[in-house]
Write a structure and sequence with these properties.
The chain is an alpha/beta fold. The chain has 2 domains: 271 residues, TIM Barrel (Alpha-Beta Barrel); 71 residues. The strands form 2 sheets. Strands 1-2-3-5-8-9-10-12 form an 8-stranded parallel barrel, surrounded by 7 helices.
């Protein structure tokens, strides 16, 4: 199991700190650093900035929003980032949610699985530098009734294959990830619940063109080191309640559905109810400690070291650290500690 770093969103006054974290992760030998986008900072610009200040670490989008860009534009961006970084780019994609897709991008949140399949196929074809033509339900290239013609990408990526990752939560989306993607970007990953999540991925893998290749399983895991477990859990509560309660509508929240499937149905309903009533403090308080403990790494370094073994044994191949709690010095120390405890866990010391 390797370590990654997830910087999350930029633009909240944390930009210089995030760059310092990325540079330190590069020095420490982390495999990849990820940046996200919603309706603030875009991930492509941030990753370009990070790549310019690092030497070895991969840079990845977690995620580029599918409704935000045409697939050809995504291929252009991926090829450019791969070239500028010297072959260090990983392309993470996701459909976002109905509120952002329709409210921010003006794109109907319609049949996301079918749209994702077409989107990935077009990106892959464009990156292969074949002339781009496609006849699908959502995308038709070139348009049949105009002057457009099939074009080929002019940029030469450093690598023949840029790895594609999908952010997936529901069972059918997980199957699609296994079928067409190199890796899976996971959230709220609990080793105890891994079979229910990895089962669909493995089922999809058996019928895809990548059936002979392993899936890179990449959960983002909040890490807070300290002796007081309840105190360590506190900064994770707001993060969890945002997704469980606020990322979507009452009727359509994929994160909330996942928490229900994990056995926290009553809590999920309470968190969502309070969050949608703008009782953000109450929503955070309603996140069960057991849920945080299962989906985060909290507590003394020895406890985290022992818990890392469960992640590795459950099938995680790249664990992305979310070190957003504490001062910059404390978060830098967290990155260093994670390298140490992973080495100790692997060596069994």
């Amino acid at each position: 199991m390797k370590l990654g770093l997830n910087l999350g969103y930029w633009g909240a006054g944390n930009d210089s700190d995030n760059l310092a974290l990325a540079v330190e992760a590069d020095r420490l030998g982390y495999a990849v650093v990820w940046a996200a986008e919603a309706y603030g900072s875009d991930a492509a610009t941030i990753l370009t900035w990070v790549a310019a200040h690092t030497k070895r670490i991969d840079v990845g989008s977690a995620i580029f929003q599918i409704p935000a860009r045409t697939p050809a534009m995504t291929a252009m961006t991926a090829a450019t980032l791969d070239t500028l970084s010297g072959g260090r780019f990983r392309l993470g994609l996701g459909v976002s949610g109905p509120q952002v897709s329709e409210g921010w991008h003006g794109v109907r949140f319609d049949r996301p699985l079918a749209r994702t399949r077409e989107y990935v196929a077009i990106v892959q074809k464009a990156l292969s530098r074949h002339r781009l033509s496609y006849d699908g339900e959502f995308f038709t290239l070139p348009l049949p009734d105009g002057p457009g013609k099939a074009l080929a990408l002019t940029v030469h990526p450093v690598r023949e294959h840029i790895p594609i990752y999908l952010a997936a939560i529901g069972p059918k989306n997980l199957e699609l990830t296994g079928e067409i993607a190199d890796g899976w970007l996971a959230i709220f990953f609990a080793p105890e619940f891994a079979p229910e999540l990895l089962g669909p991925i493995r089922a999809g893998r058996t019928r895809g063109a990548l059936s002979d290749q392993p899936v890179d399983v990449v959960p983002t895991v909040p890490v807070v080191i300290g002796d007081d477990l309840e105190k360590c859990a506190e900064p994770v509560r707001a993060y969890s309640s945002l997704y469980v309660g606020g990322m979507g509508s009452r009727d359509r929240n994929f994160y909330n559905n996942l928490v229900v499937r994990m056995g926290f149905g009553q809590a999920a309903a309470e968190v969502q109810d309070k969050y949608l009533r703008r009782d953000y403090t109450g929503a955070a308080a309603a996140i069960p400690f057991d849920f945080i403990d299962r989906t985060s790494l909290i507590g003394p370094r020895e406890r985290i070291r022992d818990r890392l073994a469960a992640y590795a044994e459950s099938g995680v191949t790249t664990l992305s650290v979310a070190a957003y709690s504490g001062s910059l010095d404390e978060r830098l120390a967290t990155l260093r500690t994670m390298v140490e405890v992973l080495d100790e866990s692997v060596l069994g010391t």
